[in-house]
Amino acid sequence: LLENLSVPHILVSLLVLDLTLYIWHRLNHEVPFLWRFHHVHHLDNRLDSTTALRFHFGELFFSPFLRMVPVFLLGIPFTHVLWYEGISAVFVFFHHSNIRLPKALDSLLSRVIITPNLHWMHHHAKRVDTDSNYGVIFSFWDRLLRTYNPKARSQTMPLGVEGEKADPTFTTLLIKPFK
């Protein structure tokens, strides 16, 4: 177990798992069947850390099928998966938060990690902006895979899904993907 905890080994695992989650997130936007479940997450018109918990159970059911592929193919140790899941959870809460970092700090951090400013654009009610900034921990995936959107958030930008009523009831959210 200790040999699997070497820093380079953990870093490679984290990069592979983060790229996998980037791909999963992007597929949730590009595959209509997956979008039916994922767009429930985007219907929140007040982005804050609670949005990090707002995922449809259908999305949570399908997610492991793709996310575990590199674990089995590359033999990523379970301890590394646990490390990634813990670290990514912190980042998901962070970049869904309504924290406004000082511009210089945000600019510096966003070169490497997803900041609230970057992720807010992903939740913009305009589909062209929603289909960008898919990263979970690292922002360089978006740059490398040409999905980076550098626009800065504004307090007046509408959040949600273009053309849909924001914040429907809990029951409506549960049945929405099946309609």
Could you explain how this protein is built, in words?
- It contains ten helices and no strands.
- The chain has 179 residues and is mostly helical.
- α1 crosses α2 (32-42).
SSE-based structural type: mainly alpha
Average of pLDDT: 89
Helix content: 55-70%
- Name the poorly predicted regions: none
The largest sheet, given as strand count, sense and whether it forms a barrel, is:
none
State which percent range the strand residues make up: under 5%
Molecular shape: globular
Distance between the termini: 47 Å
Task: Give Rg in angstroms.
Answer: 16 Å
- Count of individual helical segments: 10
- Based on DSSP secondary structure assignment, what is the total number of beta strands? 0
Order of helices and strands: HHHHHHHHHH
Describe this protein with a few key phrases.
56% helix, 179 residues, mainly alpha
Task: Give a quick precis of the structure.
The chain is mainly alpha-helical. Helices cover 56% and strands 0% of the residues. The protein is built from ten helices and no strands.
